[in-house]
Design a protein that fits this description.
Blueprint: H1 2-31, E1 47-55, E2 58-67, E3 70-80, H2 90-97, H3 109-123
Helix pairs in contact: 1-3
Pfam family, one: FMN_bind
GO molecular function, one term: FMN binding
InterPro entries: FMN-bd (IPR007329)
């Protein structure tokens, strides 16, 4: 009886862990063709801009606040990310460098790429 319980637990762990791994791999492959373009902040008027992108299973919606051609803040309104919550740290790099040309967050490549694309979409009105 104990052996069956242990086998059952192992099977559930493999299924659950394998599912998470499959989502991670699928997310990474999904965004490999996503191109994040640079944005000329001097051409962006002061204001608040909303941008989003949906590439299941990773989705993001952001609000970007621009003042005097400077990104003052980026607020994540929605981020469905699977394992990529730490990808949200990419916004710190964008604000610090005032550019979308920043490295993605290791271990959260898909999420940080999607967030960067959402920021681009906000600034370009897409």
């Amino acid at each position: 009886m104990l052996k069956k319980i242990v086998i059952g637990i192992v099977v559930l762990l493999v299924i659950f862990g394998g599912g998470r791994l499959a989502i991670h791999v699928m997310s990474k492959n999904l965004v490999k063709d996503v191109v994040v373009s640079s944005v000329d902040l001097a051409s962006i008027s002061d204001g608040e801009y909303i941008g989003a992108i949906s590439m299941e299973p990773v989705n993001a919606e952001v609000k970007v606040i621009v003042e005097n051609s400077i990104i003052k803040d980026i607020i994540i309104l929605k981020h469905e990310h699977g394992l990529g919550e730490k990808g949200e740290r990419v916004i710190e790099n964008v604000i610090e460098s005032q550019s979308l040309e920043v490295d993605t967050i290791s271990g959260a490549t898909a999420s940080s790429t999607i967030i960067l694309k959402a920021i681009e979409n906000a600034l370009l009105g897409k």
